[in-house]
TrEMBL record:
<keyword id="KW-0812">Transmembrane</keyword>
<feature type="transmembrane region" description="Helical">
    <location>
        <begin position="23"/>
        <end position="41"/>
    </location>
</feature>
<feature type="transmembrane region" description="Helical">
    <location>
        <begin position="134"/>
        <end position="152"/>
    </location>
</feature>
<keyword id="KW-0472">Membrane</keyword>
<feature type="transmembrane region" description="Helical">
    <location>
        <begin position="61"/>
        <end position="78"/>
    </location>
</feature>
<protein>
    <submittedName>
        <fullName>Uncharacterized protein</fullName>
    </submittedName>
</protein>
<feature type="transmembrane region" description="Helical">
    <location>
        <begin position="90"/>
        <end position="114"/>
    </location>
</feature>
<keyword id="KW-1133">Transmembrane helix</keyword>
Length: 153
């Protein structure tokens, strides 16, 4: 803090620091622990690369993404009070929430759909399932990060 820093600047700086801490906490506890099954599979990769690929083909990354998205939506709702003060901020909040809910719904629907597929059909569409799960994981990670960041600002 400097002598020329106003009270509003101090509050803004404190909010940015709080936002970084909240995002880092969410990333470590939410994302890293959600990806723990991948880490456990990687230790098994020395024997055979099949388990990791099968994990992706079964759509498990969709389930992990859905859980991450749901957690971020909860974080966002916990910090919603500040967004609802201004209409412009509220519209952005609603849009980001809609994007996160859409990613959550897609992840959940695709996981349920893949879980119902016979093993033969999963094998026929394995490359598509793996590619889609990685793509939706990326979308979920971005939208969730934005929601968590915004909830703490």
């Amino acid at each position: 803090m400097t002598d020329t820093e106003t009270e509003a600047e101090q509050v803004d700086r404190a909010r940015r620091v709080a936002a970084r801490v909240r995002l880092a906490t969410w990333f470590f506890f939410g994302v890293c622990f959600a990806l723990l099954p991948f880490g456990l599979l990687m230790t098994d990769l020395r024997s055979s690369p099949a388990p990791f690929r099968e994990f992706l083909e079964r759509g498990e990354l969709f389930a992990i993404s859905a859980i991450l998205g749901a957690g971020a939506i909860g974080e966002s709702l916990a910090g919603a009070k500040d967004y609802l003060v201004k209409v412009k901020s509220a519209l952005g909040y609603v849009f980001r929430g809609f994007c996160a809910l859409t990613a959550f719904a897609l992840n959940t629907a695709l996981y349920v759909r893949i879980a119902d597929l016979p093993k033969l059909e999963v094998g026929l569409h394995a490359d598509t399932i793996v590619a889609d799960s990685w793509a939706l994981f990326g979308v979920t990670l971005v939208t969730s990060s934005i929601l968590v960041w915004g909830a703490s600002r």
